Amino acid sequence: MRIVLVGPPGAGKGTQAAYLAKNLSIPHISTGDLFRANISQGTELGVRAKAFMDAGDLVPDEITIGMAKDRMEQPDAVNGFLLDGFPRNVSQAKALDEMLQAAGMKLDAVLDLEVEEDEVVKRIAGRRICRNDSGHVFHVTYAAPKTEGVCDACGGELYQRSDDSEATVRNRLEVYHTQTEPIIDHYKAQGLLVTISALGKVDEVTQRAMDALKK
After folding, report:
1. 131 is catalytic
2. What is the tens place of the pLDDT at every residue in 123-151?
3. Which of 1, 21, 39, 212 is packed most tightly, with the most Cβ within 10 A?
4. In the annotation, is 69 catalytic?
């Protein structure tokens, strides 16, 4: 199967992508992994991307598209893949359409993980991370530490990352609504959109997604 996974920040895309890719026996292709791999390997696209990132600029679509194309042409992706974080806008979605058409392929589904905005803010803004190297993550509502502000594992101080603040989360949501959400209509018009609720336990959402994809 060839699947695109979409949804707002905090919807659990990364977690679900890993589970779904394993269940479907297809590679999970995330934008973050693409950038890290190309930069660490010093590829031409990686060098170009790093120059933009070091300057604090957005990486142009053509570079992201090039990385995605190279990855989708790898042997392990011949029988399918799950795209996470790509396409990020309508321009990238159209480029993906053209790429697949040129290769005689097509998407099977676009899985939209639906979650209310207030729930997204609650999920992300409630995260607390241990300052020590343990990197343990807690949540004030869903996985609270035994003692407020203290890591259960090592006794380290728990803190909220600056990019997890409510103001930052709402800004990320605004960027999502403006740039990424329009691809939902793009794929709905092609009859590819499958929308499921991203609420509940991880395995419940995974099963919900698998059931929806089978249909």
Report:
1. no
2. 999 999 999 866 789 999 999 999 999 99
3. 21
4. no
